[in-house]
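FW: tagging you since you asked about this chain on Friday. Here's the raw sequence from the shared folder, copied in full. Didn't touch anything.
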Amino acid sequence: MKAWAIAVLAVGASACSGTGSGVRAEADAPRIGATSSEDLVVGARGVVGRTTDLRVSESSMRGRFREVPVDLSWNGQYLKGVVGGQLTRLELAQGDDTRLLGSFAGMPVDLVIEKGGLSGRVGECHYALFRVKGGFRGPTACGGARQRDSELAFSEELTEKPLGQQAALLALTLSPHLERRYMGVQRPVSWTVSDQSLVTPGYAH
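HL: got it, structure written out here
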């Protein structure tokens, strides 16, 4: 099975596998290590890592991303759902460039992906990344922290995925402190997402 790797701030490599999604990292599959010490391998039916197990279809993504619950669906115009108990609604537009605008896991998103690179913001982080072999690289500034260089592994093959899936993968990997934010909110008991509207999740009391 062909698979591609995706991660932020690549620094090393290690093995990973997953069972719930039906995806398994093969011995020759690309692996990218990140500051979270987790490989993320994207296959035809899911995304797997040490603490990641996402089931992916042509129009949805469900499971856990680094322990954060994810329930997303998309069409040609919108990506919507719930990530870490927070609502997501992104407008998707694709022409000469690709634009993502709205809210992801409760954080503001305004991204532009062009042939030469990726720029914009997710939450408190601002990116100005250039396209390089295997992904993007360039300066990143988060909050009041000093600007630093970062690397996003995003293989050219991933651009063949549905636009909604591309948007979900980018937003998940670019979202700052997603796990920490999730631990700071009430954990959802359940949620419902329809094609027409978003229903606020219920919480344990």
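FW: Residues 132 and 148 are 17 Å apart (CA to CA).
HL: agreed, and Helices lie at 163-174, 178-183.
FW: great, closing this out.
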